[in-house]
């Protein structure tokens, strides 16, 4: 603006825009320093990314702070995100691949939930079963669990390398072996 109106004083131009002369000089100085500061920040980022390729921006900022403070550069989290985004240096988040364990949209018969609304008043009235997938170095293992619904105690379990019924049967055998003689004769075994 000053180049377009050289006859006007700096004070009157600043007054016109509602800023002080000090703010004008600070902004001019900031504009001179910003590209140099950004180049320095980007060089540090590239250096860290060579050593730790998938380091995230927040951790990167934490590591950069001591180096930048030595040069008198202040940069915040959002400004660093914006700078890295502009230069294409943001690390894309890897989506976790989830394993779908239940398919309820099948053509097989779906049985009604008989325990819905059932009030359990003691142990060994209702057992619930479930299978949990556990990722191992060899692939997946399958943990079959049988839990007493009243006490929340695991009464039977088995870890098996396939989804064959063997794992579930072993867990059921363990649960039955743990039953006491005075247990109620009426026991519901519900499978999720």
Automatic annotation (TrEMBL):
GO: which molecular function terms?
Answer: nucleic acid binding
What does the record list as GO biological process? Answer: DNA integration
Record-annotated Integrase catalytic domain positions: 122-179
Protein name, as recorded = DDE-type integrase/transposase/recombinase
Could you tell me which species this protein originates from? Dyadobacter sediminis
């Amino acid at each position: 603006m000053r180049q377009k109106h050289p006859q006007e004083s700096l004070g009157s131009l600043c007054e016109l825009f509602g800023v002080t002369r000090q703010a004008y000089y600070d902004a001019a100085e900031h504009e001179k320093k910003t590209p140099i500061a950004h180049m320095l920040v980007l060089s540090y980022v590239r250096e860290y990314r060579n050593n730790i390729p998938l380091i995230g921006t927040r951790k990167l900022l934490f590591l950069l702070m001591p180096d930048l403070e030595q040069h008198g550069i202040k940069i915040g989290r959002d400004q660093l995100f914006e700078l890295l985004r502009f230069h294409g240096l943001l690390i894309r988040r890897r989506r976790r691949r989830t394993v779908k364990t239940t398919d309820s949209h099948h053509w097989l018969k779906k049985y009604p939930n008989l325990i819905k609304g059932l009030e359990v008043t003691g142990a060994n009235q209702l057992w619930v079963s479930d299978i949990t997938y556990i990722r191992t170095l060899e692939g997946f293992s399958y943990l079959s669990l049988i839990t007493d619904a009243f006490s929340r105690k695991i009464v039977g379990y088995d870890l098996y390398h396939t989804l064959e019924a063997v794992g579930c049967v072993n867990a059921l055998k363990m649960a039955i072996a743990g039953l006491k003689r005075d247990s109620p004769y009426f026991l519901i075994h519900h499978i999720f």
